[in-house]
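Quick one: C-alpha coordinates for this chain, please?
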Amino acid sequence: MKVTTVKVKHYRNLLPQTVTLSDGLNILRGDNAQGKTNFLESVYLCCIGKSPRTDKDRELIAWQQNNALVSTSYTCRYGEGQIEILLTAGKKKQIKINSVAVNKTADLMGYLNCVYFSPSEIKIVSESPSERRKFMDIDLCQTDKNYFYSLTRFNRSLQQRNNLLKQWQEQQDTISAWDEQIASEGARIVMKRRAFCNKLSQFAKQCHDTLTENAEQLEVQYVTQLEGETYSEIKNNYLKLLNANCAKDAKAGFTTSGCQRDDVSLRINGVDVRSYGSQGQRRTCALSLKLAETEIIRSITGEYPILLLDDVLSELDEKRQRKLLQYSQHTQILLTVAVGVDDRLPADMKYSLFNVKQGLLTKM
Protein backbone atom coordinates (compact mmCIF):
# COMPACT_ATOMS: atom_id res chain seq x y z
CA MET A 1 0.00 0.00 0.00
CA LYS A 2 1.33 3.43 -0.89
CA VAL A 3 0.17 6.98 -1.53
CA THR A 4 1.04 8.12 -5.07
CA THR A 5 -0.23 11.72 -5.13
CA VAL A 6 -1.70 14.18 -2.65
CA LYS A 7 -3.67 17.23 -3.83
CA VAL A 8 -4.45 20.01 -1.36
CA LYS A 9 -6.28 23.31 -1.68
CA HIS A 10 -6.79 25.83 1.14
CA TYR A 11 -5.68 23.25 3.71
CA ARG A 12 -4.14 25.05 6.71
CA ASN A 13 -1.05 26.94 5.49
CA LEU A 14 -0.36 24.66 2.51
CA LEU A 15 -0.43 26.30 -0.92
CA PRO A 16 -2.67 24.70 -3.57
CA GLN A 17 -0.56 21.92 -5.11
CA THR A 18 -0.32 18.30 -6.16
CA VAL A 19 2.57 16.31 -4.69
CA THR A 20 3.82 13.05 -6.21
CA LEU A 21 5.37 10.72 -3.63
CA SER A 22 7.84 7.87 -4.05
CA ASP A 23 7.94 4.31 -2.73
CA GLY A 24 9.91 3.72 0.45
CA LEU A 25 11.19 6.73 2.37
CA ASN A 26 9.94 10.27 1.64
CA ILE A 27 11.58 13.02 3.69
CA LEU A 28 9.90 16.41 4.15
CA ARG A 29 12.57 18.91 5.20
CA GLY A 30 11.94 22.43 6.42
CA ASP A 31 11.99 24.94 9.25
CA ASN A 32 9.21 25.17 11.82
CA ALA A 33 5.74 26.39 10.74
CA GLN A 34 6.38 25.80 7.02
CA GLY A 35 3.72 23.07 6.58
CA LYS A 36 5.52 19.74 7.07
CA THR A 37 3.18 18.46 9.79
CA ASN A 38 0.15 19.87 7.98
CA PHE A 39 0.99 17.75 4.95
CA LEU A 40 1.23 14.57 7.05
CA GLU A 41 -2.05 15.53 8.68
CA SER A 42 -3.75 15.85 5.28
CA VAL A 43 -2.77 12.26 4.44
CA TYR A 44 -3.97 11.03 7.84
CA LEU A 45 -7.29 12.81 7.24
CA CYS A 46 -7.88 10.68 4.14
CA CYS A 47 -7.11 7.50 6.10
CA ILE A 48 -9.14 8.09 9.25
CA GLY A 49 -11.53 10.92 8.35
CA LYS A 50 -10.26 13.19 11.13
CA SER A 51 -7.13 15.00 12.22
CA PRO A 52 -4.73 13.52 14.80
CA ARG A 53 -4.33 17.02 16.29
CA THR A 54 -7.81 18.53 16.53
CA ASP A 55 -11.48 17.56 16.55
CA LYS A 56 -12.49 20.84 14.91
CA ASP A 57 -12.61 20.62 11.12
CA ARG A 58 -12.77 24.41 10.88
CA GLU A 59 -9.18 24.61 12.08
CA LEU A 60 -8.09 22.64 9.01
CA ILE A 61 -9.37 25.30 6.61
CA ALA A 62 -6.93 28.04 5.63
CA TRP A 63 -7.33 31.52 7.13
CA GLN A 64 -10.06 33.59 5.43
CA GLN A 65 -11.23 30.61 3.35
CA ASN A 66 -14.59 28.83 3.61
CA ASN A 67 -13.54 25.38 2.43
CA ALA A 68 -10.56 23.09 2.00
CA LEU A 69 -9.94 20.09 -0.24
CA VAL A 70 -7.67 17.08 0.17
CA SER A 71 -7.50 14.38 -2.49
CA THR A 72 -5.24 11.34 -2.13
CA SER A 73 -4.54 8.75 -4.79
CA TYR A 74 -3.09 5.41 -3.70
CA THR A 75 -2.33 1.86 -4.76
CA CYS A 76 -2.91 -1.30 -2.77
CA ARG A 77 -3.11 -5.04 -3.36
CA TYR A 78 -6.57 -4.58 -4.90
CA GLY A 79 -5.53 -1.88 -7.38
CA GLU A 80 -5.74 1.90 -7.47
CA GLY A 81 -8.01 4.18 -5.47
CA GLN A 82 -8.75 7.78 -4.62
CA ILE A 83 -10.13 9.46 -1.53
CA GLU A 84 -11.37 13.04 -1.59
CA ILE A 85 -12.48 15.07 1.43
CA LEU A 86 -14.08 18.49 1.19
CA LEU A 87 -14.24 20.55 4.37
CA THR A 88 -16.69 23.45 4.46
CA ALA A 89 -17.06 25.87 7.36
CA GLY A 90 -20.22 25.17 9.33
CA LYS A 91 -21.09 22.03 7.35
CA LYS A 92 -20.49 18.30 7.58
CA LYS A 93 -17.39 17.11 5.72
CA GLN A 94 -18.03 15.52 2.33
CA ILE A 95 -16.18 12.28 1.56
CA LYS A 96 -15.82 10.59 -1.82
CA ILE A 97 -14.22 7.20 -2.42
CA ASN A 98 -13.36 6.61 -6.07
CA SER A 99 -15.63 9.57 -6.97
CA VAL A 100 -18.62 8.05 -5.10
CA ALA A 101 -20.00 10.05 -2.16
CA VAL A 102 -20.33 8.26 1.19
CA ASN A 103 -22.47 9.40 4.11
CA LYS A 104 -20.54 8.02 7.05
CA THR A 105 -16.94 8.29 8.16
CA ALA A 106 -17.11 4.56 8.91
CA ASP A 107 -17.39 3.90 5.17
CA LEU A 108 -13.88 5.36 4.77
CA MET A 109 -12.25 2.87 7.14
CA GLY A 110 -10.01 0.24 5.60
CA TYR A 111 -9.39 1.81 2.20
CA LEU A 112 -6.13 3.58 3.06
CA ASN A 113 -4.51 2.49 6.30
CA CYS A 114 -1.86 4.49 8.12
CA VAL A 115 0.00 4.74 11.41
CA TYR A 116 0.87 8.22 12.70
CA PHE A 117 3.64 8.93 15.20
CA SER A 118 4.96 12.19 16.64
CA PRO A 119 6.79 13.07 19.89
CA SER A 120 3.42 13.90 21.47
CA GLU A 121 2.39 10.25 21.06
CA ILE A 122 4.32 9.54 24.25
CA LYS A 123 0.98 10.36 25.89
CA ILE A 124 -0.09 6.81 24.99
CA VAL A 125 2.34 5.65 27.65
CA SER A 126 2.46 8.51 30.15
CA GLU A 127 -1.09 9.86 30.34
CA SER A 128 -4.52 8.52 31.33
CA PRO A 129 -6.11 5.21 30.25
CA SER A 130 -8.30 7.14 27.79
CA GLU A 131 -5.22 7.64 25.59
CA ARG A 132 -4.55 3.90 25.49
CA ARG A 133 -8.22 3.15 24.74
CA LYS A 134 -8.06 5.68 21.89
CA PHE A 135 -4.94 3.93 20.63
CA MET A 136 -6.77 0.58 20.53
CA ASP A 137 -9.93 2.05 19.04
CA ILE A 138 -8.22 3.81 16.12
CA ASP A 139 -6.46 0.62 15.07
CA LEU A 140 -9.52 -1.55 15.44
CA CYS A 141 -11.73 0.91 13.56
CA GLN A 142 -9.28 0.95 10.63
CA THR A 143 -9.40 -2.81 10.21
CA ASP A 144 -12.92 -3.68 11.44
CA LYS A 145 -15.96 -1.59 10.50
CA ASN A 146 -18.17 -3.68 12.79
CA TYR A 147 -16.00 -2.57 15.70
CA PHE A 148 -16.56 1.06 14.69
CA TYR A 149 -20.34 0.51 14.66
CA SER A 150 -20.27 -1.30 18.03
CA LEU A 151 -18.20 1.47 19.57
CA THR A 152 -20.55 4.14 18.21
CA ARG A 153 -23.65 2.35 19.54
CA PHE A 154 -21.97 1.70 22.88
CA ASN A 155 -21.02 5.36 23.37
CA ARG A 156 -24.52 6.54 22.51
CA SER A 157 -26.09 4.03 24.90
CA LEU A 158 -23.65 4.96 27.65
CA GLN A 159 -24.50 8.64 27.23
CA GLN A 160 -28.24 7.85 27.48
CA ARG A 161 -27.69 5.80 30.62
CA ASN A 162 -25.62 8.56 32.21
CA ASN A 163 -28.35 11.08 31.47
CA LEU A 164 -31.00 8.84 33.04
CA LEU A 165 -28.89 8.21 36.15
CA LYS A 166 -29.45 11.83 37.11
CA GLN A 167 -33.16 10.96 37.41
CA TRP A 168 -32.64 7.52 38.89
CA GLN A 169 -35.73 7.34 41.12
CA GLU A 170 -38.05 7.92 38.15
CA GLN A 171 -36.04 6.09 35.47
CA GLN A 172 -34.95 2.77 37.03
CA ASP A 173 -36.93 0.65 34.57
CA THR A 174 -35.67 2.63 31.59
CA ILE A 175 -32.07 2.31 32.72
CA SER A 176 -32.26 -1.48 32.61
CA ALA A 177 -33.13 -1.33 28.91
CA TRP A 178 -29.96 0.64 28.24
CA ASP A 179 -28.01 -1.85 30.35
CA GLU A 180 -28.91 -4.55 27.84
CA GLN A 181 -27.62 -2.48 24.93
CA ILE A 182 -24.44 -1.48 26.77
CA ALA A 183 -23.68 -5.08 27.76
CA SER A 184 -24.35 -6.38 24.24
CA GLU A 185 -22.03 -3.91 22.51
CA GLY A 186 -19.57 -3.80 25.40
CA ALA A 187 -19.02 -7.54 25.27
CA ARG A 188 -18.15 -7.30 21.57
CA ILE A 189 -15.74 -4.45 22.29
CA VAL A 190 -14.03 -6.38 25.09
CA MET A 191 -13.54 -9.48 22.95
CA LYS A 192 -12.01 -7.52 20.08
CA ARG A 193 -9.81 -5.39 22.32
CA ARG A 194 -8.53 -8.53 24.04
CA ALA A 195 -7.67 -10.16 20.70
CA PHE A 196 -5.99 -6.94 19.56
CA CYS A 197 -3.86 -6.75 22.72
CA ASN A 198 -2.80 -10.36 22.35
CA LYS A 199 -1.37 -9.48 18.92
CA LEU A 200 -0.03 -6.17 20.18
CA SER A 201 1.85 -7.90 22.99
CA GLN A 202 3.65 -10.19 20.56
CA PHE A 203 4.57 -7.56 17.96
CA ALA A 204 5.41 -4.78 20.43
CA LYS A 205 7.84 -7.10 22.23
CA GLN A 206 9.58 -7.91 18.93
CA CYS A 207 9.80 -4.22 17.95
CA HIS A 208 11.09 -3.24 21.37
CA ASP A 209 13.69 -6.00 21.30
CA THR A 210 14.93 -4.62 17.98
CA LEU A 211 15.00 -0.98 19.07
CA THR A 212 16.79 -1.72 22.35
CA GLU A 213 18.93 -4.59 21.03
CA ASN A 214 17.31 -6.91 23.61
CA ALA A 215 18.42 -4.72 26.53
CA GLU A 216 14.81 -4.32 27.72
CA GLN A 217 11.78 -6.59 27.75
CA LEU A 218 8.40 -4.96 27.04
CA GLU A 219 5.21 -6.57 28.38
CA VAL A 220 1.78 -5.49 27.14
CA GLN A 221 -1.44 -6.66 28.82
CA TYR A 222 -5.10 -5.79 28.36
CA VAL A 223 -6.79 -4.63 31.58
CA THR A 224 -10.59 -4.81 31.93
CA GLN A 225 -13.21 -5.23 34.64
CA LEU A 226 -15.13 -7.71 32.49
CA GLU A 227 -14.48 -11.40 33.03
CA GLY A 228 -15.37 -14.28 30.75
CA GLU A 229 -14.04 -16.12 27.71
CA THR A 230 -17.09 -16.17 25.45
CA TYR A 231 -19.38 -13.39 24.30
CA SER A 232 -22.27 -14.72 26.41
CA GLU A 233 -20.13 -14.96 29.55
CA ILE A 234 -18.83 -11.42 29.15
CA LYS A 235 -22.29 -10.02 28.42
CA ASN A 236 -23.85 -11.73 31.44
CA ASN A 237 -21.05 -10.56 33.72
CA TYR A 238 -21.42 -7.06 32.28
CA LEU A 239 -25.13 -7.00 33.14
CA LYS A 240 -24.38 -8.20 36.68
CA LEU A 241 -21.74 -5.50 37.10
CA LEU A 242 -24.07 -2.73 35.91
CA ASN A 243 -26.88 -3.95 38.17
CA ALA A 244 -24.61 -4.27 41.22
CA ASN A 245 -23.26 -0.73 40.77
CA CYS A 246 -26.49 1.00 39.78
CA ALA A 247 -27.04 2.75 43.12
CA LYS A 248 -23.42 3.89 43.21
CA ASP A 249 -23.73 5.10 39.61
CA ALA A 250 -26.85 7.08 40.47
CA LYS A 251 -25.04 8.78 43.32
CA ALA A 252 -22.04 9.57 41.12
CA GLY A 253 -24.20 10.70 38.20
CA PHE A 254 -22.39 8.48 35.66
CA THR A 255 -21.61 4.83 34.92
CA THR A 256 -18.62 3.86 37.04
CA SER A 257 -17.89 0.41 35.59
CA GLY A 258 -17.53 -1.13 32.17
CA CYS A 259 -15.26 -1.17 29.13
CA GLN A 260 -15.11 2.64 29.05
CA ARG A 261 -12.61 2.16 31.89
CA ASP A 262 -10.38 -0.38 30.09
CA ASP A 263 -6.63 0.12 30.07
CA VAL A 264 -3.42 -1.39 28.70
CA SER A 265 -0.66 -2.29 31.16
CA LEU A 266 2.86 -1.51 29.91
CA ARG A 267 5.90 -2.86 31.75
CA ILE A 268 9.61 -2.83 30.96
CA ASN A 269 11.60 -5.52 32.75
CA GLY A 270 8.60 -5.97 35.05
CA VAL A 271 8.34 -2.28 36.02
CA ASP A 272 5.33 -0.06 35.22
CA VAL A 273 6.55 2.33 32.50
CA ARG A 274 3.89 4.96 33.16
CA SER A 275 4.81 5.37 36.83
CA TYR A 276 8.50 4.55 36.90
CA GLY A 277 9.86 4.63 33.34
CA SER A 278 12.35 7.27 32.24
CA GLN A 279 11.48 9.71 29.47
CA GLY A 280 13.63 7.70 27.07
CA GLN A 281 11.95 4.42 28.04
CA ARG A 282 8.49 5.93 27.58
CA ARG A 283 9.44 7.32 24.18
CA THR A 284 10.86 3.99 22.99
CA CYS A 285 7.84 2.14 24.39
CA ALA A 286 5.47 4.43 22.49
CA LEU A 287 7.45 3.92 19.28
CA SER A 288 7.39 0.15 19.77
CA LEU A 289 3.60 0.26 20.11
CA LYS A 290 3.30 2.29 16.91
CA LEU A 291 5.57 -0.04 14.96
CA ALA A 292 3.56 -2.96 16.32
CA GLU A 293 0.48 -1.29 14.83
CA THR A 294 2.00 -1.63 11.37
CA GLU A 295 2.55 -5.34 11.95
CA ILE A 296 -0.99 -5.88 13.22
CA ILE A 297 -2.51 -4.11 10.23
CA ARG A 298 -0.29 -6.15 7.91
CA SER A 299 -1.37 -9.39 9.60
CA ILE A 300 -5.04 -8.48 9.06
CA THR A 301 -5.00 -6.82 5.63
CA GLY A 302 -2.04 -8.56 4.02
CA GLU A 303 -0.05 -5.35 3.45
CA TYR A 304 1.73 -2.72 5.50
CA PRO A 305 0.03 0.63 6.19
CA ILE A 306 1.57 4.02 5.38
CA LEU A 307 3.88 5.14 8.21
CA LEU A 308 3.61 8.87 9.02
CA LEU A 309 6.49 10.03 11.23
CA ASP A 310 6.46 13.62 12.43
CA ASP A 311 9.79 14.95 13.77
CA VAL A 312 10.83 11.74 15.51
CA LEU A 313 14.50 11.42 14.52
CA SER A 314 15.61 14.16 16.92
CA GLU A 315 14.26 12.03 19.77
CA LEU A 316 16.33 8.95 18.84
CA ASP A 317 20.01 8.06 18.86
CA GLU A 318 21.73 7.04 15.62
CA LYS A 319 21.24 3.29 16.10
CA ARG A 320 17.52 3.61 16.73
CA GLN A 321 17.16 6.04 13.82
CA ARG A 322 18.62 3.44 11.47
CA LYS A 323 16.44 0.63 12.82
CA LEU A 324 13.34 2.79 12.46
CA LEU A 325 14.13 3.88 8.90
CA GLN A 326 14.76 0.29 7.87
CA TYR A 327 10.97 -0.09 7.91
CA SER A 328 11.02 1.72 4.54
CA GLN A 329 12.05 -1.66 3.09
CA HIS A 330 8.53 -2.88 3.86
CA THR A 331 6.32 0.19 3.83
CA GLN A 332 6.08 3.72 2.51
CA ILE A 333 7.25 6.29 5.08
CA LEU A 334 6.51 10.00 5.15
CA LEU A 335 9.01 11.57 7.55
CA THR A 336 9.32 15.22 8.57
CA VAL A 337 12.70 16.60 9.65
CA ALA A 338 14.18 19.98 10.49
CA VAL A 339 16.74 21.58 8.18
CA GLY A 340 20.10 19.89 8.70
CA VAL A 341 18.76 16.65 10.16
CA ASP A 342 18.76 14.97 6.73
CA ASP A 343 22.53 15.56 6.56
CA ARG A 344 22.92 13.15 9.47
CA LEU A 345 21.02 10.29 7.83
CA PRO A 346 22.97 7.10 7.04
CA ALA A 347 24.92 7.57 3.80
CA ASP A 348 23.57 4.34 2.32
CA MET A 349 19.93 5.24 3.01
CA LYS A 350 17.83 5.75 -0.14
CA TYR A 351 15.06 8.34 0.00
CA SER A 352 13.19 11.07 -1.85
CA LEU A 353 13.67 14.55 -0.45
CA PHE A 354 11.11 17.37 -0.45
CA ASN A 355 11.91 20.88 0.68
CA VAL A 356 8.99 22.54 2.48
CA LYS A 357 8.91 26.32 2.57
CA GLN A 358 5.94 28.64 3.14
CA GLY A 359 3.46 25.87 2.46
CA LEU A 360 5.02 24.62 -0.78
CA LEU A 361 6.63 21.18 -1.22
CA THR A 362 9.44 21.05 -3.79
CA LYS A 363 11.11 17.78 -4.76
CA MET A 364 14.89 18.09 -4.64
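The chain has a mean pLDDT of 91.
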